[in-house]
Amino acid sequence: MTTKEVPAFVGDAILDHIELAVADAERSRRFYEEALHPFGMTVILRVGPERTRTGGTRYGVGRDQYPRIWFHDGEPAGSPMHLALATTDRRVVDAFHAAALAAGGTDNGGPGVRERYHPDYYAAFVLDPDGNNIEAVCQVPGRR
Q1: Which of 90, 85, 93 is nearest to 144 (CA)?
Q2: Cys-Cys link to 135, which of 66, 84, 86, 105 (CB 3.0-4.6 A)?
Q3: How far apart are CA 91 and CA 138, in angstroms?
Q4: CA-to-CA distance for 43 and 123, rounded, in angstroms?
Q5: How far apart are CA 19 and CA 52, in angstroms?
Q6: pLDDT digits (tens, 9 = 90+) for 103-126
Q7: What's the pLDDT at 1?
Q8: pLDDT at 64 over 60
Q9: Distance (Å, rounded) from C-alpha 49 to C-alpha 74?
Q10: pLDDT tens-digit profile of 31-53?
Q11: What CA–CA distances, in Å, run from 25 to 22, 29, 76?
């Protein structure tokens, strides 16, 4: 393993959200509501099939009004997962995208604002070698 210099603008990375495919979103909703209750987590959002990429129902579970665990049906359970890491600096999103591509990842959406989420959702997406969708996201207002 080689040692690389860490860029001066490195932001604190935290888990922003994770998404998994499940066989039955309603059954999983009931499970996660009960299982995650001790953590103070509840269902925060439900997205109907008419608004999803998979045609299935999506649920977002979390606390403090922010969903950190998403699950959906409409794809086979065990399909590649989605993992998003948060930063407070858009340069980290850009650097992640470039580094992931250089490491052999496949572009799944270059750095940019994703208005469909909200006007400050700046993200980039890369598929890892196993097809998992890895995202870097900055939700801090930036230059427009």
Answers
A1: 90
A2: 84
A3: 9
A4: 24
A5: 13
A6: 999 999 999 999 999 999 999 999
A7: 45
A8: yes
A9: 8
A10: 898 988 877 889 999 999 999 88
A11: 6, 6, 12
Report residue 7: phi and psi, to 5°.
Answer: -60, 150
- Inside any domain, residue 51: yes
- Domain end marker among 72, 100, 117: 72
Q: In residues, how long is the chain? A: 144
Structure tokens at 137: 């996201």
Q: Would you list the DSSP string of 48-96?
A: -GGGSSSSS-EEEEEETTEEEEEEE-SS-TTPPPEEEEEES-HHHHHHH
User: 72, 97, 113 — which closes off a domain?
Assistant: 72
- Around Cβ 93, how many Cβ atoms within 10 Å? 24
User: What is the total count of domains within the chain?
Assistant: 2
Question: The dihedral of CA 105, 110, 116, 120: what is its sign?
Answer: positive
- Residue 21 tokens read as 């495919």
Query: Which residue(s) pair with 14 in the sheet?
Result: 86
| Of 3-7, 96-100, 103-107, 124-128, minimum mean pLDDT range | 3-7
Whole-prediction pTM: 0.75
Token digits for 1? 């393993």
